[in-house]
Q: What sequence folds into this?
């Protein structure tokens, strides 16, 4: 029997949640929470530090004049503050997170536990290498997994995220061209118009010029357009191609593309953001790839953390391996692991150092933990289940929504907005999903599909979860097809209604400022 | 397989619903020669939690944790105490397993903490505006340099001689890839002030670091003034965020852009990453900033809310014309920073900074009193360089045998220099009087 029998049993009363106003601004379990600066004071603290002794300063007068004035909170206040804020967030641990091209899969808790072992979390990047042999061995093991899974001979571990991995790959291409004496002449990089924005941005960051190539009607690279862009070859640096591509499709002509680029004297950079679709089933090294970054925070389950940290190790072909950045780990004949940190000796052709220290160790621990958990057999199943789940969604929704392309997809299903009635847009469908308890899919990307909706369920969803999601989206899609205007106001049930982004950008308020004195006096 | 919910029965029912015979049907676009039938060779099969935990624990046990004994390593990453509640907060699933807040209606938690983070970073650095984080201090520094070139439309970047060499390398790499020229002043322990005469009419920015890699603190106000007279910007860099509780911050020195490492507040050492890059600038430069920015607005009901804003600077909108290619940044590390800073408060931060400074002063007194030790850093916060006349690598190895991790040998960072006998040592609030006594006693035996 429940505790409820101790008092008066409750019974449902008729009232609509939306009509109830509260004094506190909270709504049941969802607590209202002001900014930290509105509830704390600079004198309040949640740490107990010993009093300074008053030792004579050795700052030589280079001292701070105006104090920070930053508000503090006691521990119970701070815990509540962030706990309350956390409840305004959607998360994978709450439900399906079908954000296409982001691979929002379950983040195993064992990963978190391992990353917090003092032998990993509490070691300094510059302590003597003899005292961190286990860390170097871990990096070496992870490197072996990455090289084996991709079929590539070398890997740079230091890139801090996917886009940083792209930078790593393109800098290696730049360095290889310089070594060939063609650094100044080969500046053109081909990038499909469907590419993630980081691709063209990265190319330009490395001093290249972007030349867009078109997609064909099947969502792949238009080979005729590619060939026309290769009519001139002496200025070609390479191509940046995502595979499986941003339409969730495998580039059928990938080997021919690689061949054409190589024949033109360029290099093939592959964006590995969608590696989850093929891990254990296809090795990019067998496709003619020269460089590819791997998002450990996608395929290998390290958490996204609300926007990072990521980790973007970048694998290289033999052609680019000599130009990879420092540092890297080598195993010497005596069995000891050693960091090569300078561009000399083993690394004399390296393009240099991209970042302080040795990469995202905390993410390496999580990724290796995940790889060991799944093993070679499990990772193959990961790819197959990810692709199966996406195709299941496509099959269940293709009668009510418009698949962007014919045939099976890989790990994500892509729909256009062709099925919607006039006036109803992709954003309305996305926001209506929020009311159903789901994070929206990626919307308006890739750019080559009108009103694109890109749905990536990942392999960590059960069939029951997929069915529940499809039921919800199917119902919204029918309303969209019928021109249901109520969709325009969605979400109705989220912690916030649609936000005014135009206002935010017009006169940006990027930090909290104390209320002006006259306002305080008037209150 | 514990992370895969589909059962064999689910799989066959789903394949039937799709109209496929097996998963192989989904891979027919893959060139035949590249289709792997069997699992990839040379890697082990799946293992249970226990076996994996055993493997990882064994690797971890081969490393010496900073908390295991007296520990004095700094140079860009610092051993500080992180309150237990910080780790609890960042392990909340709603923060840990959420994505970049593209859907603000269901990401107000992340967005409000980013707004708090930006406010804290702006106040800490005494700058007008801060972004929502970069990967780390070194990449933030590189981005600051190329931003200065965009702002001034000039191509020359000048680095101080006391800059962390990793920061200098990362900055040089990105700048040179973009056709900028980078000059660095000769390596010097107290060389930041020399930047005052370095800028000319073609200089985009001078970049100074305080405290620098040798621990030297410098008021760069004069450098700012002379740079501005030439139409150049001052980029001020720091690797020890705690120092700003006590040391003159970038904004008070007249810096136009500041880039720094935020690891010291809220984040563990993690062998070098993940960390959190802090990036702030003057308000008029905000539209040239790299990275995410969180701004205040209202929702359809008129309630205050937060969104990612000024996205027209960014790669997903501007593509090849973006200010940077950065996408994923250091969100969760920024949250750790914010939670720790919230626990400290302004007063607590200052007190923490004082404790750090005092620990370093006491360490310098104890080591400086030894015959043969020369303290080289003239003004310092919690880190300084000293010389012993004995090869630093040998000294550190012998200290290690005595249980003391004594610092960083300067020759690891400056292999070409004449710093073979120089050690850079840091002390923090974690350093005890016993630690300092153990260091001095061990060093006395060695030199």
A:
């Amino acid at each position: 029997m429940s505790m409820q029998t101790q008092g008066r049993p409750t019974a449902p009363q008729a009232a609509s949640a939306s009509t109830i106003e509260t004094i506190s601004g909270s709504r049941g379990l969802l607590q209202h929470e002001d900014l930290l600066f509105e509830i704390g004071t600079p004198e309040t603290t949640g740490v107990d530090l010993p009093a300074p002794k008053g030792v004579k300063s050795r700052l030589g007068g280079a001292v701070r004049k105006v104090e920070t004035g930053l508000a503090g909170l006691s521990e119970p206040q701070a815990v509540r503050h962030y706990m309350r804020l956390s409840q305004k967030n959607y998360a994978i641990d709450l439900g399906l997170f079908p954000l296409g091209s982001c691979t929002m899969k379950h983040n195993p808790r064992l990963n978190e536990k391992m990353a917090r072992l003092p032998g990993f979390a509490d070691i300094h990047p510059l302590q003597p290498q003899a005292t961190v042999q286990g860390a170097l061995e871990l990096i070496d093991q992870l490197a072996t997994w990455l090289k084996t899974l991709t079929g590539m001979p070398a890997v740079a571990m230091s890139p801090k995220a996917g886009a940083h991995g792209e930078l790593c790959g393109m800098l290696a291409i730049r360095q290889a061209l310089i070594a060939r004496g063609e650094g100044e002449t080969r500046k053109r990089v081909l990038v499909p118009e469907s590419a993630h924005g980081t691709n063209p941005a990265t190319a330009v960051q490395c001093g290249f010029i972007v030349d867009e190539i078109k997609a064909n009607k099947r969502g792949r690279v238009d080979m005729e357009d590619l060939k026309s862009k290769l009519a001139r070859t002496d200025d070609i640096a390479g191509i940046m191609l995502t595979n499986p591509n941003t339409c969730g499709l495998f580039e059928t002509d990938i080997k021919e593309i690689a061949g054409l680029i190589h024949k033109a004297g360029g290099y093939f950079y592959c964006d590995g953001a969608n590696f989850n679709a093929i891990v254990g089933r296809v090795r990019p090294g067998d496709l003619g790839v020269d460089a590819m970054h791997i998002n450990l925070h996608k395929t290998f389950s390290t958490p996204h953390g609300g926007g990072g940290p990521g980790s973007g190790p970048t694998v290289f072909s033999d052609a680019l391996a000599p130009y990879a950045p420092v540092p890297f780990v080598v195993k010497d004949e005596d069995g000891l692991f050693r960091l090569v940190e300078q561009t000399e000796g083993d690394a004399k052709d390296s393009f240099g150092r991209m970042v302080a220290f040795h990469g995202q160790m905390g993410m390496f621990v999580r990724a290796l933990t995940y790889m060991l958990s799944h093993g070679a057999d499990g990772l193959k199943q990961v790819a197959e289940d990810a692709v199966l789940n996406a195709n299941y969604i496509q099959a269940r929704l293709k009668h009510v929504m418009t698949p962007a392309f014919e045939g099976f997809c890989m790990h994500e299903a892509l729909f256009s907005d062709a099925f919607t009635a006039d006036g109803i847009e992709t954003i309305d469908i996305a926001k209506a999903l929020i009311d159903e308890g789901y994070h929206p899919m990626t919307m308006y990307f890739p750019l080559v599909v009108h009103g694109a909706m890109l749905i990536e369920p990942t392999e960590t969803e059960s069939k029951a979860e997929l069915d529940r999601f499809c039921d919800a989206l199917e119902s919204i899609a029918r309303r969209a097809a019928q021109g249901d205007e109520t969709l325009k106001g969605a979400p109705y049930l989220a912690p916030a209604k649609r936000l005014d982004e135009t206002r935010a950008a017009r006169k940006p308020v990027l930090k909290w400022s104390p209320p002006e004195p006259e306002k305080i006096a008037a209150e | 397989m514990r992370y895969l919910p589909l059962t064999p029965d689910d799989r066959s029912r789903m394949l039937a619903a799709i109209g496929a015979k097996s998963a192989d049907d989904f891979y027919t676009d893959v060139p035949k020669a590249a289709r792997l039938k069997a699992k990839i060779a040379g890697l082990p099969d799946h293992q249970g939690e226990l076996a994996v935990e055993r493997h990882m624990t064994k690797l971890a046990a081969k490393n010496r944790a900073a908390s295991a004994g007296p520990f004095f390593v700094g140079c860009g990453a610092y051993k500080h105490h992180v309150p237990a509640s910080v780790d609890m907060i960042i392990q909340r699933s709603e923060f840990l397993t959420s994505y970049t807040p593209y859907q603000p209606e269901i990401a107000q938690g992340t967005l409000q903490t980013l707004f708090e983070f930006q406010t804290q970073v702006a106040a800490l650095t005494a700058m007008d505006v801060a972004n929502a984080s970069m990967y780390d201090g070194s990449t933030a520094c590189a981005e600051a340099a190329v931003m200065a070139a965009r702002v001034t439309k000039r191509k020359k970047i000048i680095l101080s001689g006391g800059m962390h060499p990793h920061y200098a390398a990362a900055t040089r790499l990105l700048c040179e890839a973009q056709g900028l020229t980078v000059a660095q002043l000769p390596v010097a322990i107290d060389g930041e002030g020399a930047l005052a005469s370095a800028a000319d009419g073609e200089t985009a920015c001078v970049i100074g670091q305080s405290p620098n890699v040798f621990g030297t603190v410098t008021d760069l106000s004069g450098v700012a003034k002379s740079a501005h007279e030439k139409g150049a910007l001052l980029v001020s860099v720091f690797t020890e965020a705690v120092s700003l509780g006590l040391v003159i911050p970038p904004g008070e020195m007249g810096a136009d852009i500041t880039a720094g490492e935020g690891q010291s507040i809220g984040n563990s050492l993690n062998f070098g990453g993940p960390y959190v890059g802090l990036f702030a600038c003057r308000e008029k430069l905000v539209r040239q900033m790299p990275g995410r920015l969180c701004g205040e607005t209202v929702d359809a009901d008129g309630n205050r809310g937060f969104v990612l804003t000024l996205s027209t600077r960014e790669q997903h909108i501007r593509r090849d014309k973006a200010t940077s290619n950065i996408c994923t940044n250091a969100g969760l590390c920024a949250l750790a920073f914010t939670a720790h800073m919230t626990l400290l408060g302004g007063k607590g931060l200052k007190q923490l900074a004082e404790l750090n400074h005092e620990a370093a002063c006491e360490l310098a007194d104890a080591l400086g009193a030894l015959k043969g030790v020369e303290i080289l850093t003239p003004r310092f916060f919690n880190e300084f360089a000293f010389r012993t006349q004995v090869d630093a690598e040998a000294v550190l190895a012998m200290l290690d045998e005595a249980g003391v991790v004594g610092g960083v040998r300067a020759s690891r960072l400056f292999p070409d220099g004449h710093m073979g006998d120089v050690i850079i040592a840091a002390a923090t609030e974690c350093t005890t009087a016993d630690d300092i006594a153990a260091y001095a006693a061990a060093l006395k035996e060695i030199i």
Remarks:
- The first strand of chain B starts at residue 129 and ends at 130.
- The first helix of chain B runs from residue 8 to 18.
